[in-house]
Amino acid sequence: MSGQVLLLDAASLYYRAFYGVPDRREDPSTPPNNAVRGFLDMIATLVSAHRPDGLVACWDDDWRPAFRVEAIGTYKTHRLAAESTFAEDTPEDLASQVPLIVESLAALGIPRVGAAGYEADDVIGTLATRLVAAGRAVDIVTGDRDLFQLVDDAAGVQVLYTARGGVREPDVVDEAYLKTTYDVAGGGAYADFAVLRGDPSDGLPGVRGVGPKSAASLLSRYGDLAGIESALTAGDPGIKGAQRTRLLEAGGYLAAAPRVVRVVRDIDLPQVSVDLPTQVADAVAMSRLAVDYRLTGAFTRVVAALGLG
Q1: 3-class secondary-structure state, position 158
Q2: In this structure, are residues 241 and 99 in contact, taking their beta carbons and an 8 Å threshold?
Q3: What is the model's pLDDT at position 201?
Q4: Cα–Cα 20 to 30 A to 7, which of 46, 145, 194, 243?
């Protein structure tokens, strides 16, 4: 296995930066920069710690894709801005910094990849699939458990999970972690586990009365969602009483939810070089951003970590 590539779940990281990095403005009339500073510092930390051969910032071109909403109407509804059917409820001080993050990545020469109608998760799934086929190892950097489904020891895909320790001390999620933490056999089983358990943070109800332990037990016994469905149809005595009733009641949900939960792995993405930049792409733009938004220190750290000068 050659060439480790870091795939960044960009929104997960810049949200964490916004809420975790202090806003140090002395004059509130100056533009905020804490999300940009934090995001750039995260890149510097990750590159310094892991010395990858490649790096991609994966983007949510559509944070709530139509195909997922059509499958489960409650998908992410609680995150909608007031009186909106499509806009995400994002703090104004963060929203104003997202374009600056885009400009900063472009100035540094770090590729940023999104796809119309898809979330960053789907971009990550597609790039990971391509990279594995090319013999590259993949580390996915995210605070989102949904991407655990991509974990595959044999393929060299793991997740650096930032929810607790941040990018400095992430949980390294491999198949052993999934077994120890959730009692599931691997990434594919985790996706089915997530369907059964549900996820209130994404508006997925799960199956009533089926929690993590019972979801893991069902998958251990029947293999996957299709195996559980076959057992229900056959009247398997291992599923009985209230659990059988609730699984049958959830038939419509169980048919629709996999389309929401499972990451798309075959988006028609353009070919993009994932290799680390060998020079700053636009020194003039980087200098302007550094001065106008007080980002000199953050850019200096990223440039040093990347070895660009």
Answers
A1: strand
A2: no
A3: 87
A4: 194
What pLDDT is attached to residue 82? Answer: 78
- Give the single-character DSSP code of 276: P
CB atoms within 10 A of CB 228: 23
Encoded tokens for 46: 């990750």
Q: What is the DSSP track for 219-262?
A: HHHH-SHHHHHHHHHHT-TTS-HHHHHHHHHTHHHHHHHHHHHS
Q: What angle do CA 240, 242, 243 make, to 5 degrees?
A: 65
Across 191-196, average pLDDT:
98
- For β-strands 171-173 and 157-161, DSSP reports them as antiparallel
DSSP letter assigned to residue 80: B
The rounded distance, in Å, linking the Cα atoms of 146 and 63 is 14
| Neighbouring C-beta atoms of residue 38, cutoff 10 Å | 24
Q: What average pLDDT is seen over the chain?
A: 95
Mean pLDDT of 246-256: 96
- Per DSSP, 185 falls in state S
Of the chain, the percentage scoring pLDDT greater than 70 comes to 99
pTM of the predicted structure, to 2 decimals: 0.96
